[in-house]
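Ops channel
N.P.: pipeline sanity check, posting one input/output pair.
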């Protein structure tokens, strides 16, 4: 059994839903994970925002517009009044539920309930359409088996146990449809796996059922060697190591959610990235033994802040770095990059929520400077230290760009460079030119 996840654009219109149905009906008894139709989750966030701000008119208008969009999709997708009525009744119930959450006190709890409606609607429409095509698809509600524990980590034992029981109870199903992204938390409340988290759902399900393969179907033919949003002429990388994929996903390659890699890697399940619009394209397979000896791809992570602590007196004293890191731990802020020298240490963080408090505490240990609007450029491939020349190629490609920090040797797969936001697009293009299009 395989797990096939289809992202927002893959189910973003009636035509795309029909294409996905053709594709999954051909591929056997698999578990299909769906995102919300593209744009829906953003709109649900917007509705919640209006409700937080007590702008009831704004919320109502946005809900009505979204419902009209779904009505249009339903009209196009189904060709009988009976099917259209059933589909409109199902999505209508979701919209009525959203309207009912216009409460005096609107909290994170209500927001999560609203955000869940996108995946609930896309899976209902897809299941009904499959039924109309004569496919016996079982809609298995993610809220019945996908659960996180008190640390907001997936409860793998619970997921495996519940999911296995649900699959066993549906022995005559041709295939299974479920929602990505949504789950229940340790208190039984509706929650989610963070934006873009449908990839994580697919990977957790893959691990729970020991799937043959996890397929992430999206709008591009695999992981490209650079970010196609900023660089022209990028090409798919056909094979990646789990660690390489993890580095790229974490450092900005949006095609894959970073959390998706670990469950697959731990259970040694290959992850294949495929294109719904070009189902026969080779795409990318992520596994344990891809080819070595090359640089594979480049990605960029935005909104980075660099913090430098200068202290000639204390840096080399043992325990100094621990004290510095403890401050970040206390303020629940993770560090991405680190560079040290005799007189200072620089680190980067990707959220500024607790920055004032962190800077305040760090001042006990030295002079603190902060550089905002930075970007981490991450180059991924066979970057083991005994290889020669790859680091030189990377640095050489960026010789005309000011580089604030470099981190190399943390893993065999990555070299990271911190540059200014304004230099990002130029840096990505230069790296493509020097690393992948040399002649
Ligand atoms: P989905 O809605 O299917 O989850 P996403 O929008 O999350 O799709 O991810 C697909 C997008 O990721 C692509 O359209 C592409 O613009 C972007 N992307 C960023 N970096 C890369 C990369 N290195 N390779 C492929 N796609 C990338
Ligand atoms: N629908 C959710 C989002 O837009 C989850 C996902 O698409 O992966 O973030
Ligand atoms: Mg995605």
């Amino acid at each position: 059994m395989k797990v096939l996840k289809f992202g927002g654009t893959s189910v973003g219109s009636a035509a795309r839903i029909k294409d996905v149905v053709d594709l999954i009906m051909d591929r056997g008894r698999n578990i299909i994970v769906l995102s919300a139709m593209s744009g829906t989750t953003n709109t649900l966030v917007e509705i919640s925002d209006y409700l937080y701000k007590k702008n009831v008119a704004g919320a109502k208008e946005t809900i009505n517009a979204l419902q009209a969009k779904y009505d249009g999709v339903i009209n196009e997708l189904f060709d009988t009044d009976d099917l259209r009525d059933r589909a409109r009744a199902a999505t209508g119930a979701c919209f009525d539920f959203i309207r009912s959450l216009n409460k005096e006190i609107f909290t994170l709890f209500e927001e999560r309930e609203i955000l869940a409606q996108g995946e609930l609607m896309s899976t209902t429409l897809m299941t009904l359409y499959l039924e109309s095509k004569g496919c016996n698809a079982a809609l298995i509600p993610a809220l019945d088996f996908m659960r996180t524990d008190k640390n907001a980590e997936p409860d793998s034992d619970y997921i495996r146990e519940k999911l296995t029981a649900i699959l066993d109870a549906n022995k005559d199903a041709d295939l299974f449809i479920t929602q990505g992204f949504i789950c229940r938390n340790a208190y039984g409340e509706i929650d989610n796996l963070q934006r873009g988290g449908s990839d994580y759902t697919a990977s957790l399900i893959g691990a729970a059922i020991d799937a043959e393969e996890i397929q992430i179907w999206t709008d591009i033919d695999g992981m490209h060697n650079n970010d196609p949003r900023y660089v022209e002429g990028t090409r798919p990388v056909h094979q990646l190591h789990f660690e390489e994929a993890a580095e790229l996903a974490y450092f900005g390659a949006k095609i894959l959610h970073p959390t998706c890699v670990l469950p697959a890697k731990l259970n040694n399940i290959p992850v294949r990235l495929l294109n719904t619009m070009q189902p026969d394209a080779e795409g990318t397979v992520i596994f344990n033994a891809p080819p070595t000896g090359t640089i594979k791809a480049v990605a960029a992570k935005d909104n980075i802040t660099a913090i430098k602590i200068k202290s000639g007196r204390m840096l080399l004293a043992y325990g100094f770095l621990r004290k510095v890191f403890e401050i970040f731990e206390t303020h629940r802020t993770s560090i991405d990059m680190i560079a040290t020298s005799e007189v200072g240490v620089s680190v980067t963080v990707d959220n500024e929520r607790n920055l004032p408090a962190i800077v305040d505490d760090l001042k006990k240990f030295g002079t603190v400077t902060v550089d905002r609007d930075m970007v981490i450029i991450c180059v991924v491939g066979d970057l083991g230290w005994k290889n020669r020349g790859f680091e030189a190629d990377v640095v050489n490609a960026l010789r005309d760009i000011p580089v604030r920090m470099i981190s190399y040797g943390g893993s065999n797969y990555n070299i990271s460079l911190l540059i200014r936001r304004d230099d990002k697009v130029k840096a990505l293009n230069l790296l493509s030119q020097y690393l992948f299009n040399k002649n």
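N.P.: looks fine end to end. Residues 2-219 form a domain with the Carbamate kinase fold (CATH 3.40.1160.10).
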